[in-house]
Specification:
By secondary structure, the protein is of the alpha+beta class. Helix content is about 40%, strand content about 25%. The strands form three sheets. A six-stranded mixed sheet has the order 4-3-8-7-6-5. It has a three-stranded antiparallel sheet with strand order 1-2-12. Strands 9-11-10 form a three-stranded antiparallel sheet. The radius of gyration is 29 Å and the shape is globular.
């Protein structure tokens, strides 16, 4: 090999190693991270829309991403025979990445365990200490506190009659006000063998009219700065306010009431039209307006936080809708929190992808 060709081969090898080594991780990891995050968000939004249309949901978990890298170097010399001055070295580098992505569908007992089991009260506490507002936690994951219903039939397919929720929302509003001002803490204690959630209100607010109103709304005999909440069937103590939690699927159904279908689909009976007692149409934004709003469009919107195509429309959450974005991220985080190891799930789909 001539000196020129040796220098060229060495140069190509050094350049390629610098690119394929640390640089491939620098750029590849970020791209895979963004793609998995985006497709997870699209899948969650797609299933919310499916639930609004009473279509069965389906979740595919990305269980592994493996990729192999290959590098091929080529060198050559071009020129006219007999004229050494026109000899020109040349070379090429071929970089190939072959990712393999493995999916596992959630179904059967695993689906039931993850999506259909009522949320344990301790999970509410974990979400609270993750920074989520107490009213968002209660509205999404609690179906009833004491005698206060939180649109319980919205925990399934859209009901045809208007829900009851006003007193529950008022209790949540009071709790949020106390939490926002730093006068409330959410914790856990025990009564016998069962864990009980406890809300401590700053004793300095004992005479606050809001504390008295909260006790009245919850049906307590007198105002108190210590509120105890327990699962309905676990305790009969009169001081413990019964609480009924939703499952993850029920919470998704509840949030899906914020999906706004086209009027034509409502008229054709593709989605349920909810009515007031007098026959007027019920506006679900009264319940979900500060929780979740999913809009539709004929074309993919340019200002969407997340968007997905389904049933001939684009469904999206507006990037300026901070309440909907918060609830969406809240649901995503809860799915991650409750997910177990999916390696035992079957069948598993492994898709090799060729990319050059």
């Amino acid at each position: 090999m001539s000196l020129a060709r040796r220098i060229l081969a060495l140069s190509l090898a050094l350049t390629a190693c610098q690119t394929v080594g640390p640089q491939s991780m620098k750029y590849g990891r970020g791209q895979y991270n963004q793609t998995v995050q985006r497709t997870d968000a699209e899948q969650l939004l797609l299933n919310l829309v499916r639930l609004r249309y009473r279509d069965p949901p389906l979740f595919l978990e990305v269980t592994s991403i493996a990729t192999s890298l290959s590098l091929e170097l080529g060198t050559g010399v071009t020129g006219n025979v007999g004229n050494i001055n026109t000899v020109t070295p040349s070379g090429s580098v071929l970089y190939t990445e072959r990712p393999t992505i493995t999916y596992a569908p959630l179904h059967g007992s695993r689906f039931g365990q993850l999506f259909m089991t009522p949320i344990e009260p301790r999970v509410l506490l974990l979400l609270y200490h993750s920074g989520w507002a107490i009213d968002r936690i209660l509205k999404v994951f609690v179906q009833r506190i004491g005698s206060l219903p939180n649109a319980p039939r919205a925990s399934g397919p859209t009901p045809d009659n208007a829900p009851q929720y006003e007193d529950f929302f008022r209790a949540c509003e009071i709790l949020r006000h106390l939490w926002r001002d730093g006068h409330l803490e959410f914790g856990e204690t025990r009564r016998g063998e069962f864990p009980v959630l406890v809300i401590h209100i700053d004793p300095s607010r004992a005479e606050d009219p809001l504390v008295a109103e909260l006790a009245r709304v919850l049906g307590l005999p007198q105002p108190t700065t210590t509120l105890l909440f327990g699962a309905t069937l676990r305790s009969s103590e009169p001081s413990i306010v019964p609480i009924v939690t939703r499952s993850l699927l029920a919470a998704m159904y509840y949030a899906s009431q914020g999906v706004e279908p086209p009027e034509l689909d409502i008229r054709r009976g593709k989605v349920t039209r909810t009515q007031e007692a007098g026959g007027a149409e019920f506006d679900w934004t009264r319940v979900t307006g500060k929780i979740m709003q999913v809009h539709h469009a004929e074309r993919r919107p340019s200002d969407a936080f997340v968007a997905v195509s389904y049933r001939g429309h684009w469904w999206y959450i507006d990037d300026t809708d901070l309440d909907s974005k918060s609830t969406f991220s809240f649901l995503s985080q809860t799915v991650e929190l409750l997910s177990n190891d999916v390696r035992a799930a079957t069948p598993v789909m492994t898709l090799p992808i060729s990319a050059g």
